[in-house]
Design a protein that fits this description.
The complex is a heterodimer of chains A (about 450) and B (about 500). Chain A has about 450 residues and is an alpha+beta fold. Chain A folds into four domains: about 110 residues, no CATH class; about 110 residues, no CATH class; about 80 residues, OB fold (Dihydrolipoamide Acetyltransferase, E2P) (Beta Barrel), CATH 2.40.50; about 100 residues, no CATH class. Chain A contains 13 helices and 15 strands. In chain A, the strands form three sheets. Chain A has a six-stranded antiparallel sheet. In chain A, strands 7-6-5-8-9 form a five-stranded antiparallel sheet. Chain A has a four-stranded antiparallel sheet with strand order 1-2-3-4, with helices on both faces. In chain A, helix 1 packs antiparallel against helix 3, helix 2 packs across helix 3 and helix 5 packs antiparallel against helix 7. Chain A is globular, with a radius of gyration of 25 Å. The longest helix of chain B has 19 residues. Chain B is extended, with a radius of gyration of 32 Å. A two-stranded antiparallel sheet of chain B has the order 1-2. Chain B is built from 27 helices and two strands. The interface between A and B is large, with 68 and 64 residues.
C-alpha cells in the first residue's frame, strides 16, 4: 500500500492534490474494494452515472471514467487516500475492473512479445523504402543542423563584436528570436543553452563573466561540431547526442543495462514552452550507480507521475551514449524494498565529488548539471557544507531551505544529493533517520 | 574589445596547473583562429573551463559546533508527523495552536523539519503564545534555536539589528513586532529614528507594529503619523490613537461630541430629549482627525453631517460618552430609538461598542434593538463581540426568525471560540439550509475551519460532503476544507478537554 507521502508525490499538480484529498473520504465512495494490488471504487460525479475508478498499485496504473485530462485524476488520488488512510474492505473486483486489468495485461504482453514473422508491411521492398526515407530525413536534419550551427556561430561572434554591455541591453525578444531560429533548425538542446545565456546576462553581480562563459561554451560547440568527423569516437558521439542526433530506442533496449533496485532520489519538474518534463535522479541500492531518467509531455498530454521521490523498483536501466548519465528504463517491477539512505563511501568526500565533476566537465563542457552525492555537515553560519576532511562547499545564497537542512542534521553529517551547475552547487534532497532510527525524514527542494 | 582581450590574456597568464585535457584535445583541432573575436572566444573558453575545473575547495579550519543532544521527548507517530508537516509553509495561528496543544498533551517533540517554520511563526506571536509554541521543540529545537540570529527574540534577547537595517520589509516588520513584545519603548525609538527617511509604503507597514504594547508614550509618534502623506498611515494612526482615551486625539473627539450632542433631561412635564447641534459647514481641520467631508460607502444612506457624527462616536468609548451625558445605556437607547438621526446615532453606538464592548451596554443594546432601522445587522455586530454566556440566552430564541445569510456572514469574521458549540452547530445547520449560494460558503468556511472546535468541525464537514462533486468548491473553500480536515484529524490524536 502506498503511503500518504507517496500519494502526495503522485499528484500532477497542487490543485489535483487538494481535490484528491477532498475525494479521499470513504463516505464519498458509493462502492469500493481492494484485492491484492488492485483498488477500485465508484464515486458520484457531475454526471448521471457514478465514475468508475481503479488503480493497480504495482505501477501504479490508473483508470477512471471521468473526463479529466489530469493524470492521475482527483478520483484516482482520492481512492488512494481512502485506501491509505481509512482502509478498504477486501472484495471480489467487479467485471469492469477485471476487464480493464485484462486489457492492460494484454497490451503489456503485446508490447513485450518478440517481433513476429515479416508481414507484407515488412517486405524487403518496403524495408528498403523505409531505409531510404530515413536516410533522407537524416540528411535533411543534418543540413538543417549545419545551417543552424553556422548561423549560431555568426550570431555569437557578432555579439562579442558588439560588446557584452550591448548584449545585456538587448530586449527579451532578441534572445527569443535566437531560440526560435535554433528550434526551427531542430536544435532544441542548443536553444536551451541560449536561454541559459539570456539568464546569465541578467544574473546580477558578476554577470559579464557568467555570460561570457555561457557564450564561449556555445561557441566551442559550434567549432567542435564543425570538426565532428575528425574527433575521436567518444567525443563525436557526445557531440552528436548533444546536437539531437536520434538514438534509437530499440537499439538502446537491445543493450545490456544495469540491474538492481532503483530508488528515486529526486524528481525535478521543468517547463519549456509547451513541453513539461520530469527529470528523475535514480540511485541503485546495490551498485550506487546514479542515473537520470526523463519523462516528457507536450500540451495537454499527461505526464507520467509514477516515479515520485522515494519510489523504489527492481529493474534494468540502459544508458544513453555520453556522460550525462541519461538512461532509459528497460524493465521495471514494483518492489517492496524499503527506502534506503544512500551511504556514500568515505572517499566520496566533497573534493572527490568535485574532482569527478571536473573530470566530466573537462571532456564534456556542455553538461548543464553533474550529480553530486556526499556526506557532510550543513553549516548555516558558513552557508554551506563541511565534510570530514574539512573541505567546504557553499550552497547558493538564495537557498531557502538552509535551516530545514540544519534541523534535519542536528549538527551531524547528512547524506546530501544535489547538482553541480555552472553557477555552483544546488542541494536537492537530504536524507536522515529520525531519533528512533525508524523513519526516514527527507528534505526536498 | 582590446580591454577585454587584455583582461583575458592577463587572466589566462595567471592560470596555474594543467588545463583540462579534454578541452585541450578539442582545441588542438582548431588550428589558428581566424578572427580576433574567435581568438577571444577561445581565450574565454579556456578561462571559464579553467575556473570551473581547476578549483580546489576551500579548507575550513574552524571548530565544529557540538551536535544536538539526544531527544528526551518521544517522537510522534508517522501518521501524526504527516499531519504536523502539512501546511509547513503557510503557518496559520489556529493550526499551530492545535498542533502545539496536541504535542504537549502527548509529550512528543515537533518533527525536525517543522522547526524553522515554527520559529518563524512564533516570532509574530505574543510572549505568552511563544512560550506555548516553544514547549515541545525538543532537544533538536533547543539546539537549533540559538543558531539563527533572527530567532533571538524567542530566547528573550533583543532582535539583531542587522535585520532591521538590511532585512526585507516583512523581516523588518517582524523584527519590530518582536521588539515591541519585548520592549515597547525600544521598538518605538527604533521606528521614530527611521520614520522620516522611510518611504510611505514602509511607514504604512511598520506603524502596525505599534498595536503591540500601545501606551500614551506612543502618542507623539502616532500624532506625527496622523498627518502623514499616505492615507493608509493616517488611518492606522487614527485607529491606534483612538485606543488612547487620554490622548489629545480622543480629547478632540470628545470635544466634538460634547458640542454636537446635548442631553436635555426630562422632568415632570416633559420627556428627556437629545438635541444635536451639528455644524453648518465642514471644517478642513477635521480631515486630519479622520472625519471625511462626504459620507463614505461604509455609511451609505446616512447624510454627510450625520456621517461626521458617526465617525466621532465610533472613535470614542460609548460608555465614556454616556457618562459625560449622564445617561444609562438603557436611557440612551430609548432616546435614540425615535430620534431624527436614529440611524446615525445607532451606527455610531454600534461601531463604538464593537471597539469597547461591555456587558451592560450589550444587554441594553440587545433588548432595545428591535424597532431600530437595520436592527438585524446591528444585532449581529453586537453578537460578535459578546461571550457565549451573554449571547446564548438572547440569540437562541431569535436565530431562526432573524436569519439572513448575508447578514450573518458579516458577523462571521468575528466568530470566536468563545461561542458555544450549541450555537455554532445551530448556525452551521441553518447556513447549510441556504447552500444554494456557493459564494457564501467561500466566505463562511475559513471562519469555521479556523475557529470552531472538533465537534463543530465534524458536523460542518458532514454537512459539506454533498458539495464535493458539484463544482462549487472554490479555492478558498478547498483551502478551508483542508484546514478543517487537518484540525479535525489533529483533534482525533488528542481531543481537547473542551470537546
Amino acid at each position: 500500500m502506498l503511503s500518504v507521502n507517496a500519494i502526495n508525490q503522485l499528484a500532477p499538480d497542487a490543485a489535483s492534490l487538494k481535490a484528491g484529498r477532498e475525494q479521499g473520504k470513504l463516505t464519498k465512495w458509493l462502492a469500493s474494494g481492494i484485492q491484492k494490488d488492485m483498488v477500485w471504487g465508484e464515486i458520484q460525479g457531475s454526471g448521471k452515472a457514478p465514475y468508475r475508478t481503479a488503480v493497480d498499485l504495482r505501477g501504479p496504473a490508473y483508470h477512471c471514467s471521468c473526463p479529466s485530462r489530469k493524470f492521475p485524476c482527483k478520483h484516482s488520488l482520492g481512492l488512494l487516500f481512502v485506501a491509505a488512510e481509512a482502509g478498504l474492505a477486501t472484495a471480489e473486483p467487479p467485471a469492469w475492473v477485471v476487464e480493464w486489468n485484462h486489457k492492460r495485461t494484454a497490451a503489456q504482453e503485446k508490447k513485450a512479445a518478440p517481433e513476429q514473422a515479416p508481414t507484407e508491411a515488412d517486405s524487403p521492398e518496403r524495408a528498403a523504402e523505409r531505409e531510404l526515407a530515413a536516410a533522407k530525413r537524416a540528411a535533411r536534419r543534418n543540413k538543417l543542423a549545419s545551417e543552424g550551427l553556422a548561423q549560431l556561430q555568426l550570431w555569437l561572434e557578432d555579439l562579442l563584436d558588439q560588446g557584452l554591455a550591448w548584449v545585456q541591453a538587448q530586449p527579451d525578444g532578441f534572445w527569443q528570436d535566437a531560440v526560435a531560429r535554433l528550434t526551427n533548425t531542430q536544435l532544441g538542446g542548443i536553444a536551451r543553452m541560449v536561454e541559459d545565456s539570456h539568464h546569465a546576462a541578467h544574473s546580477g553581480d558578476g554577470w559579464a563573466a557568467r555570460l561570457l562563459g555561457e557564450l564561449s561554451r556555445l561557441h566551442l560547440l559550434c567549432r567542435a561540431s564543425a570538426r565532428v568527423d575528425v574527433l575521436d569516437e567518444a567525443h563525436a558521439a557526445e557531440l552528436r547526442f548533444l546536437l539531437g542526433a536520434a538514438v534509437s530506442r530499440d537499439v538502446l533496449l537491445a543493450r545490456d543495462g544495469v540491474r538492481g533496485t532503483w530508488q528515486v532520489l529526486v524528481r525535478i519538474f521543468e517547463v519549456s514552452d509547451a513541453l513539461r518534463t520530469y527529470r528523475h535522479w535514480l540511485w541503485c541500492q546495490q551498485t550506487g550507480q546514479l542515473a537520470q531518467v526523463f519523462e516528457f509531455a507536450a500540451g495537454a498530454q499527461p505526464l507520467d507521475t509514477s516515479l515520485p521521490a522515494g519510489a523504489t523498483f527492481d529493474g534494468e536501466l540502459v544508458f544513453y551514449p555520453g556522460r550525462s548519465l541519461r538512461a532509459l528504463i528497460k524493465t521495471r517491477t514494483p518492489t517492496a524494498a524499503p527506502l534506503r539512505i544512500p551511504n556514500p563511501p568515505e572517499e566520496a568526500a566533497l573534493q572527490s565529488v568535485l574532482d569527478q565533476a571536473t573530470a566530466l566537465w573537462a571532456v564534456q563542457p556542455w553538461l548543464r548539471h553533474v550529480p553530486a552525492l556526499f556526506k557532510a555537515t550543513p553549516r548555516a553560519d558558513l552557508g554551506g557544507f563541511v565534510d570530514h576532511q574539512g573541505r567546504f562547499l557553499a550552497w547558493p545564497k538564495t537557498f531557502a531551505n538552509a535551516w530545514q537542512l540544519l534541523a534535519l542534521s542536528g549538527g551531524r553529517p547528512l547524506t546530501v544529493f544535489g547538482e553541480l551547475q555552472a553557477s555552483g552547487f544546488a542541494p536537492m534532497t537530504a536524507i536522515a533517520l529520525d531519533p528512533a532510527q525508524r523513519w526516514v525524514q527527507r528534505f526536498e527542494r | 574589445m582590446s580591454a577585454l582581450r587584455q583582461t583575458l590574456q592577463i587572466a589566462l597568464a595567471g592560470v596555474q596547473g594543467p588545463l583540462p585535457q579534454g578541452i585541450a584535445a578539442l582545441a588542438s583541432e582548431w588550428g589558428e583562429t581566424e578572427t580576433p573575436v574567435q581568438a577571444l572566444y577561445q581565450a574565454a573558453t579556456f578561462l571559464t573551463q579553467a575556473e570551473r575545473c581547476a578549483r580546489p575547495l576551500p579548507q575550513y579550519t574552524g571548530p565544529m559546533p557540538d551536535p544536538a543532544a539526544a531527544e528526551t521527548l518521544k517522537t510522534p507517530p508517522d501518521a501524526l508527523t504527516h499531519l504536523l508537516l502539512r501546511h509547513l509553509d503557510t503557518p496559520n495561528s489556529f493550526i499551530e495552536h492545535d498542533k502545539a496543544a496536541c504535542l504537549r498533551a502527548r509529550g512528543e517533540h515537533l518533527p525536525f523539519l517543522l522547526l524553522p517554520g515554527w520559529f518563524e511563526h512564533a516570532l509574530t506571536r505574543s510572549a505568552n503564545e511563544q512560550t506555548a509554541l516553544l514547549t515541545n521543540i525538543g532537544a533538536r529545537g533547543a539546539w537549533l534555536l540559538p543558531q539563527n540570529p533572527k530567532w533571538q527574540p524567542l530566547l528573550g534577547q533583543p532582535p539583531v539589528d542587522a535585520l532591521w537595517e538590511t532585512g526585507s520589509l516583512a523581516e523588518r516588520y517582524e523584527w519590530l513586532l518582536a521588539l515591541r513584545y519585548r520592549d515597547a519603548a525600544a521598538g518605538r525609538t527604533a521606528l521614530q529614528t527611521v520614520w522620516v527617511s522611510e518611504p510611505p509604503e514602509v511607514r504604512e507597514k511598520l506603524i502596525g507594529a505599534i498595536t503591540v504594547g500601545i501606551s500614551m508614550a506612543d502618542e507623539t509618534l502616532l500624532e506625527a503619523a496622523r498627518v502623514d502623506k499616505r492615507k493608509g498611515v493616517r488611518e492606522q494612526a487614527r485607529a491606534l490613537l483612538a485606543q488612547l482615551p487620554h490622548g489629545a486625539f480622543a480629547q478632540r473627539l470628545r470635544t466634538y461630541a460634547r458640542d454636537w450632542i446635548v442631553h436635555i433631561p426630562g422632568g415632570l412635564l416633559r420627556a428627556a430629549k437629545l438635541n444635536l447641534r451639528l455644524p453648518a459647514a465642514y471644517e478642513r481641520a477635521w480631515a486630519l482627525d479622520g472625519l471625511p467631508e462626504k459620507t463614505t460607502r461604509q455609511h451609505e444612506g446616512i447624510g454627510d453631517k450625520a456621517n461626521w457624527l458617526v465617525e466621532v462616536m465610533s472613535h470614542l468609548p460609548l460608555e465614556a460618552l454616556l457618562a459625560e451625558l449622564m445617561l444609562t445605556p438603557a436611557a440612551w437607547i430609548k432616546l435614540i430609538a425615535d430620534h431624527e438621526y436614529a440611524a446615525a446615532l445607532w451606527a455610531g453606538s454600534i461601531e463604538s461598542f464593537e471597539r469597547w464592548p461591555t456587558p451592560q451596554l450589550l444587554e441594553a443594546l440587545c433588548t432595545a434593538s428591535s424597532p431600530i432601522h437595520k436592527a438585524r445587522v446591528q444585532r449581529i455586530g453586537l453578537v460578535a463581540a459578546a461571550t457565549a454566556a451573554q449571547v446564548d440566552p438572547w440569540l437562541n430564541p431569535i436565530i431562526d426568525t432573524a436569519f439572513d445569510l448575508r447578514l450573518w456572514l458579516n458577523a462571521l469574521p468575528r466568530l470566536d471560540a468563545r461561542w458555544s458549540r450549541t450555537l455554532l452547530k445551530r448556525l452551521s445547520a441553518l447556513i447549510d439550509s441556504h447552500r444554494g449560494q456557493p459564494g457564501h460558503w467561500a466566505d463562511l468556511l475559513p471562519r469555521f475551519a479556523e475557529r470552531a472546535d472538533a465537534s463543530v468541525l465534524a458536523d460542518t464537514l458532514a454537512l459539506l460532503d454533498p458539495l464535493g462533486n458539484e463544482g462549487a468548491a472554490s479555492r478558498s473553500v478547498m483551502a478551508a476544507m483542508e484546514i478543517a480536515d487537518l484540525r479535525f484529524k489533529l483533534h482525533q490524536f488528542h481531543p481537547p478537554a473542551t470537546a
